[in-house]
Design a protein that fits this description.
201 residues, mainly alpha, 7 helices
Length: 201
């Protein structure tokens, strides 16, 4: 018999390799900030861009923006298990409900992940490169690219959240409405199954 923990683990297995998901429940304030025109970044010379590309091939700031899509799915499974437990739903019916809910959660992940990945990839270099260029010299970028474990890594880690936020704002503007729509579909489907399982006690 499948247990709630097994159901959640089954959900996690296909998601973990993706290392994904986006902070995409977008508030009006986030939309306003992302939509605000940014100051034009200074041109980046070819050598500096080359070092930046090497760094971004390693640090992947887009992963921060993608993490929340996975988190929403995992959270839905966890909260469903808690709700079923709280309502004292019989084990067999709880296991079936969790298995059905897992299908809805995976559907949300499958429909949301491709657009989140595409958008994050599109904005990673355009948003992150100017931040790196403004905070590091060409020589420093070269050192970072060849030895991320150097003392300069601490400085990179300080600007990484800024880079992630820059990618996230662009992604949220582009796909936020679609992600919210997908999340609403999942939420309604999960809610219906929880209600049915609880009612049939």
């Amino acid at each position: 018999m499948t247990t709630p923990s097994h159901a959640m683990n089954a959900l996690l297995r296909p998601l973990t390799p993706l290392a994904l998901a986006a902070a995409l429940l977008v508030s009006a304030n986030a939309h306003a900030q992302a939509a605000a025109p940014a100051a034009a970044a200074a041109p980046i010379d070819a050598e500096k861009q080359k070092q930046i590309d090497r760094i971004l091939a390693v640090v992947h700031p887009e992963n921060g923006v993608l993490q929340a899509v996975q988190d929403k799915g995992v959270s839905a499974m966890q909260q469903s298990s808690i709700a079923l437990q709280t309502n004292h739903v019989p084990q067999e019916r709880k296991d079936k409900a969790l298995k059905d809910i897992q299908v809805d959660v995976q559907k949300y992940i499958d429909t949301t992940m491709p657009i989140a990945i595409a958008s994050a990839k599109k904005y990673t270099i355009p948003t992150s490169a100017p931040i790196l260029a403004a905070n590091f010299t060409t020589d420093e970028l070269r050192q970072l690219a060849t030895m991320l474990e150097s003392p300069l890594r601490d400085r990179l880690e300080k600007v990484l959240p800024q880079m992630q936020n820059a990618v996230g704002q662009k992604v949220s503007v582009e796909i936020g409405p679609q992600v919210n729509k997908n999340l609403q579909v999942m939420t309604e489907a999960v809610g219906t199954k929880l209600q049915v399982a609880a009612t049939l006690k």
